[in-house]
Specification:
alpha+beta; 33% strand; 6-stranded mixed sheet; Nuclear Transport Factor 2, Chain: A
């Protein structure tokens, strides 16, 4: 009986000592997954920087190249544009405006754990011609763009949605005191 107790005690002691001698796990930010995440975030940020330059060039074909074939573009005051052909047509009309100036900046870019979906969220500023007054007007707001990783490793927008923060009808006038 003493031999069994001694054997059990020795086994438990050895097991507990082995548990204390484990190598710590590598830090999360040093893992290959974290490095890939950072590469993908940078690729999307760089893509949006290029997208801004493409808006400045007013080249619809460069702009539509940022979208997947099945993408949808939703902007204030316009019907949703589904598919590259519809987006190209909408952008061609939009780019005819001589006052057009658009700039957007992501505040957040995140990649899904699966590594094939991502989104960016940020703010935009827009100057365009007011269709009623024919004078330049300013708009600003926020946007969300959903991305899907393509077979070639690039990221293409699949849903691009902007929301104006300017009240409908333009800035509100101060209320008059009675």
């Amino acid at each position: 009986m003493n031999r069994i107790l001694t054997y059990c005690a020795a086994t438990m002691l050895a097991a507990s000592l082995m548990g204390c001698n484990q190598t710590p796990a590598p830090a999360a930010d040093a893992s290959p997954t974290a490095a890939k995440h950072d590469v993908d975030v940078k690729a999307i940020r760089d893509g949006e920087a290029q997208w801004n330059q493409d808006y400045a060039s007013k080249d619809a074909s460069k702009l539509v190249a940022h979208y997947a074939d099945d993408a949808v573009l939703m902007t204030p005051g316009m019907a949703a544009m589904s598919g590259k052909a519809a987006i190209q047509k909408g952008l061609e009309d939009f780019l005819k405006d001589p006052a057009l100036a658009l700039h957007f900046q992501p505040s957040t870019v995140d990649i899904a754990n699966s590594g094939d979906l991502a989104y960016s969220r940020g703010t935009y500023t827009l100057t365009m011609t007011n269709p009623k007054t024919k004078k330049p007007m300013d708009d600003h707001g926020s946007y969300v763009t959903d991305y899907r990783k393509q077979a070639d490793g690039s990221w293409k927008a699949v849903a691009d949605i902007s929301v104006s923060e300017v009240p409908i009808g333009g800035p509100t006038a101060p209320m008059k005191k009675k």
